[in-house]
Amino acid sequence: MQVKESYKFLTEIIIAILVVFLAVFYGFYYKINDLKDANRAERTSINLIKLRIALEEYYKLTGTYPDLTRSNVRNNLSLLDFEAENGLKISFAKIYGKNEISFTESTKKLKNNNEIYDISNFEVGTMNGGWNYNFKEKTGEIHANLPENAYGQNIIWYKE
Fold it and tell me: Would you say 121 and 134 are in contact if contact means Cβ atoms under 8 Å apart?
């Protein structure tokens, strides 16, 4: 009789340990996912800031914003090289520090994307990643083309 009670007690202890282990595991799992999402939001914000700085620097040097929406430009920024009247070559790639546009970070539903969309009403973007850029109106305004709260940070990306 005591052996049965010992097995029963041991089984209850094992089950209790498993329940605690699973609760801790799920807690860490969700906390790790929250940290990953926060990192993605931060990298996307940093990429956006770098783009804006490069656009403004290019504008200061050329008097115009580059056409990031042109075919193949997002993956080959050297296509935007500008030659000033004095023969000086101005390179958006050099100003930006790389030869391709950075990606918006992936989400649970979206993949990394560096597509550039020419858009003037940022509230009506496709929200499928990449960047919304107002080139037609020559404003140089650019935003991440992401749905609100894409990374669980309560960021409204078309306003960011």
Answer: no
